[in-house]
Amino acid sequence: MGNKLTKDQAAEHLGISRSGIDRLIASGALRAYRVGKKSTRIDIDDLESVCKPIIPSGAA
């Protein structure tokens, strides 16, 4: 496991909004960990796995 990020840090890392992070978590695309009653952390390795390269349709 890598470093843990807050939702705000994860959003900044991906260049998306915090609500975008919330949607990824709610859909199951991004795993998050509850720390205490209010804090949520995201493993940076899980965050990297959300990013997938776009392959042009004619390239394959």
From TrEMBL:
Keywords: DNA-binding. GO terms for molecular function: DNA binding. It comes from the Bacteria. Residues 5-48 form the Helix-turn-helix domain. It holds the Pfam family HTH_17. InterPro entries: HTH_17, SinI_DNA-bd. NCBIfam families: excise. This is DNA-binding protein, excisionase family. It comes from Mycolicibacterium chubuense (strain NBB4) (Mycobacterium chubuense). The lineage of its organism: Bacteria, Bacillati, Actinomycetota, Actinomycetes, Mycobacteriales.
